[in-house]
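Database export, one record per block. Field names are fixed; values are copied verbatim from the stored entry.
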Amino acid sequence: MFTNLRSHSSHRRFGLRAALLHGVVSLAMASSASVCASTYCVHNAGELQAALVDVGNLGIANGHANTLLLTSGTFVATPTFFVNQTSGFEIDISGGYDATCSTQDRTPGATKLDGGGVTQVLSVQTNGIFSLTHITIQNGLRNGSAGGGAQIYLAPPQPSTNPNPVVTIDDNFVRNNSTTYASGGLTVYGKGTLHFDNNLFVGNTAPNAAAWAISMDAGSVVYVSNNTMTGNTNTGAPTTTGPPTSSINSGGTIGAYLVNNISYANTGAYDFYIGVNTAQLFNNDYTALSGLVPASSSGNVIGIDPQFVGAGDYHLQATSPLLDIGLLPVPGGLPALDIEGHSRTFANKIDLGAYQHGDGIFANGFEL
């Protein structure tokens, strides 16, 4: 069976994954096993795209929950990795596994999906349960449309009486993606519930919302917690409403919670564009907002240097003012672990951003 699979808090809805994991099935075995397969151990880009076809609407594994475990290494997207699954079932994609998919390395960057600077990395359409964890999305390019790194569409449920989609994007590293249109790193849109936690966005470029953009239909709920955004560049001309590093928007009433995030040292006029009047911002570190006035806002710190370790290391130093000042409990819940597998809290306190310190702070000033 499995060891070191991702832990979830009691708030999360992942019962199908636990119930349906029979064992690791290689892609070749899954192709012949038809509907019996539920878990793929994926070793290269060709196997990944074939697995995504299998679990999509026309694939042999459609009709039940499926899990794709990606081994450590670089998967080059030629073309974009794509899945369209709108029959209401579950797809979970997680990276960092060894060759047999029995143990997992949670280090950010262990599994890289790479656009090579010529294509968007990942495109997903789902109306069921979908999760993306422990994946690096890098070097994507998508001119003329949003989501240089990845885009995820929460499609209407079929039939309409089914629950809305639930999407979880946790513990990912999104870096060096770009677009000449809208958002650079990651775009999520549609209707449903979105959990967006413990992600790191670095070096993404776009005219607007260089790091990420979330645009959800009325009736959706969005939880954006403990993400770190730094070194992203907005290339659009500054205006009174943008461009921001990240944006959350809707054409109607949604639940929107931004909690314990760090947005610091990005190039652009604003850190967050707030396009919903129901947004609640708690205990974030940012410099400026644009758009609508949040419905609730407290515990935020403005323009505080997080004191990252530096040289590409986004842990907080032992002297960081952002240690232990996060909001608990977090609306919507959090994974039990941070982006690299450490406990998400320490002594019943939580840090801002994707990394959590623990009892391993040494004289060099940062957590190992």
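Remark 1: The longest strand covers residues 90-97.
Remark 2: The chain has one domain: 15-316.
End of record.
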